[in-house]
Amino acid sequence: MLTVDYDLLDLRPGMTVLDLGCGEGRHAFEAYRRGASVVAVDRGASEVETTKRWLGAIAGAGEAPEGSRYEVVRGDLLHLPFPDASVDRVIASEVLEHIPDDTAAMAEIFRVLTPGGRVAVTVPRYGPERICWALSDQYHANEGGHVRIYRADVLRTRLASVGLSPGESHHAHALHAPFWWLKCAVGVDRDAAVVRAYHRLLVWDLTTRPWLTRTAERLLDPLFGKSFVVYADKPAAAPRQDAGAGGPAPAEREQTAAAQ
Q1: 3-state SS of the chain?
Q2: What predicted TM-score, i.e. pTM, was given to this entire model?
């Protein structure tokens, strides 16, 4: 299940891509299959091992183009173990809402991107997420849970505050919003029949991709898509006027309040 549109990310073979907070690797897999040199990063040991195992299986099955590479590492998004201006694309999917100092994480993304590089950021959409929080504290108030709900304008402002230029955006996964509303309504840990039935629908949709559900989700995404996705660019380096001219002064990284 992909949240990022790889055409809007403008991912091309040979590019170096960081998948930050990769989880079990869903976005890393697609980038690898498209010929990128992928580095998947997560703090969790089990997530790292699962992603590494599946990327190895993709390589073993010959599903990745010749020249594509992968690496999976444990890392902290506030202190990424990569040099300045070293990666072409970054994916940060459903991770910033977990980080108290999200602006510092955005500044790290800006730092590692090459001039002209692009990041795809996805977060839970405000409306569907607010319903989940209203229905259940257990949904978000736990160790490693969601610490904020983003409005689209707030996310764009914070990305801009570190020097990134937010551009196109869209919503995704409308069919998943009611699933989480149901889980929150009956109890996140309860194995309710209605939740199991809806989950079977989602699995059927993911595995068969039928026209009916694909069309329904495309129409419903603008109304209550579960995720908000925005693409932001690191500005290209300004050309030097002459050999003696100095470059522009680095932009100050404005810190904004993490709480809303």
Answers
A1: CCCCCHHHHCCCCCCEEEEECCCCCHHHHHHHHCCCEEEEEECCHHHHHHHHHHHHHHHHCCCCCCCCEEEEEECECCECCCCCCCEEEEEEECCHHHCCCHHHHHHHHHHHEEEEEEEEEEEECHHHHHHHHHHCCCCCCCCCCCCCCCCHHHHHHHHHHCCCEEEEEEEECCCHHHHHHHHHHHCCCCCCHHHHHHHHHHHHHHHHCCHHHHHHHHHHHHHHCCEEEEEEECCCCCCCCCCCCCCCCCCCCCCCCCCC
A2: 0.88
Residues 126-148 pLDDT 10s: 999 999 999 999 999 888 889 99
Q: How far is Cα 65 from Cα 32, in angstroms, rounded to an integer?
A: 8
CATH of region 6-124+143-172+226-233: 3.40.50.150
Q: For residue range 53-78, what is the model confidence (pLDDT) as tens digits?
A: 999 999 999 999 999 999 999 999 99
Domain range annotation of the chain: 6-124+143-172+226-233
Q: Would you give the end-to-end CA distance of the chain in angstroms?
A: 29
Distance between CA atoms of residues 112 and 98, nearest Å:
20
Asked if 149 and 133 count as a contact pair (C-beta separation under 8 A), the reply is: yes
